[in-house]
Amino acid sequence: MEKRYPHVILGGGMVAGYAAQEMVKLGLAPGELCIVSMDEDPPYERPPLSKGLMREEKQEAEVFINGPGFYEESGIDLLLNTWVRSVDLDARTLSSKKHTIGFDSLLIATGAWPISLKIPGFDLPGVHLLRTLAQSRAIHAAAADAESAVVIGAGFIGMEIASSLTMLGVECALVYREDQVMGKRFTEPIARYFERYYADRGVRLVSEAEVAAIEGDERVTGVTLASGETLPAEMVVAGVGVRPEVGLFNDGPLKLDDGIVTNEYLETGVDRVWAAGDVSNYYDVLFGRHRRFEHEDNAHYQGLRAGRAMMGDRKPFKHVPHFYSDMFDLSWNYWGDRWMEDAEYTVTTRGEIGEDEFITWWTVDDRVMAAFTMGVRWKNAKLAADIIKQAKRLPAEALADPSRDLEELLG
């Protein structure tokens, strides 16, 4: 039997949690919204999964976006553990094994899923991916009994997991293909600073390495590299990237290109169908190009924007891209975009890399395009974002001068 709703959100992650929250604020009536999620838990924040929750600095109840009773009290149907098998955008229906769900408007928030390595032993017990709260619970439980771990990949997830496991007392090796951590996202001096910081805290860094196999019989015992070296490991966590979840839309009318392509309004081109979060390759009006952005900040604010759009408030999504993380006791933010084709970036640093506080700026023709802030108070870090949003043109000497207040530079 089909049940039809004015609004349906496909996906139960951060986008869904914040979109629902905003829709309720704007007067959503009971019975008007259904959230369809394959997860076993209501929408939750993802950053604590690899940091605060993993390190036992947060309680599980703190990670949920909306409080107990929110969905029931708001009259929102939240379908958990529900795998959608097909989507018919012409008939405007979703179909699962048990449900056919009709919609007038649809927000696609299917997110992305971690990449599994196609190597022997990857399916052994003790090998973990991290995307869901259930997976975070499993990694934390494994860490309680493990003395050694190998983390594969030195991007955000890999770096965060390596720091968290080390803080939990697990001896950790970080294995990655590149010649520096964080890929090429930051400058080499910043990457080397991170590497020294991790090494000083006991993390073994294994760069320019290819994982050939996971060893073990009934469960993992080690990781063998292409070089022939085997690293001991009672647990393995792979963080080698994600792929957007677009399989339901491969044969439909949506444009797919590294996710679902949308305009600046998060609209897909199909009437009253939006896409937001990790699955959305949206048009960024600040930088004049399409991008797909994998971070909590993007899912949060696109969720709010999409929720408003579903309630009739059509405005472009205008937001400075923002990454942030806590690794050991380092707290940093990265704002903006430095991936323009054929652009020549000038790199300027205020302070000294390795000090408690510094800012690295990327500019093109004196326009500030991106900023990395380490140890900077939130107020000042946010000023760096405002400078980028306003497309400020500032000479390198002004950006590097610590006597020039950021509020003054913002003007």
Corresponding CATH superfamily of the largest domain: FAD/NAD(P)-binding domain
Number of domains: 3
Q: Mind telling me which CATH architecture of the largest domain this is?
A: 3-Layer(bba) Sandwich
Per CATH, the class of the largest domain reads Alpha Beta
The percent range for helix content is 10-25%
Spatial extent as radius of gyration = 22 Å
Mean pLDDT: 96
What is the helix tally? Answer: 10
DSSP strand content: 25-35%
Total E-strand runs: 25
Largest β sheet strand count, sense and barrel closure = 7 strands, mixed
Q: What overall form do the CA principal axes indicate? A: globular
> Which class of secondary structure composition applies to the elements?
alpha/beta
CATH topology of the largest domain: FAD/NAD(P)-binding domain
Spans of at least 5 consecutive residues with low confidence = none
Q: In whole angstroms, how far apart are the ends?
A: 60 Å
